[in-house]
Amino acid sequence: RNYIFILFSRGIQIAASFLILISVARYLPVEEYGEYTFIIAFVSSVMSLTYFGIQQVLIREIAKNRDNAGHHIGFAIQLRTFLSAVAVLILIVAMPFMKLSGTAVAGVAIVIVSELFLAFSMLSKAVFQAFEKMIFEPLVALIYSIILLTSIGAAIYMNTGFLGLLIAIALSNALQFGVVSLILSARFVRPVFNAERSAFWRFFRDSAVIGLGVFFYQNLFRINVLMLKWFGKIEDVAFFQVPHNLIMQIELLPA
To answer: Closest Cα partner for 50 from 91, 9, 17, 20?
Structure first.
């Protein structure tokens, strides 16, 4: 039953991603699409540090002892907050060396906020998995996809350029964060932040074991875009990323 729920969730995500990818690629000029893609890849490559194996450890710990779920969620939130601050600091230091335009800098700031909402939303989804209540996955995916499609459609209709598209994605991630947080507190458990420090460091140690692997694995799918921008032209990024994204979306379903 949980597998079917996950399958529906991924199917909704793939359908929405295909529509958005094709719409955005047809709407933006080649250079703007390359800039749009590079900004997302650049920010998400650094922000992937915030994942750090936290979700895997959170699922394991809650599954072992659901009575302490609130404490483990609190550990996960604290650790992700700390790593998010580190990642944002790295991006701020790196931006002057990237020779970004003023518009691109604004885009980076928007995507940072968007990625923060997404990163904390993923913690709630990990809790769904730990409690084996995957029925909430397709529900959240459907709500998120409708909001995202509507926001992207509105941005294209109003001809806001790629900054408007980034704002639409950030708004959708913010609303998704609100939805999953409401479900978490109403149907599962609320975070607890007053646990022992030794237990927090044990959670950090276990996350660190797989954290580096998670960071490099996620960036395997972004390094090509970054290399094309640094050693090629922004147009190369656009022409590469459209077919690459289409293939990656198809691969989600069998995975």
So the answer is: 91
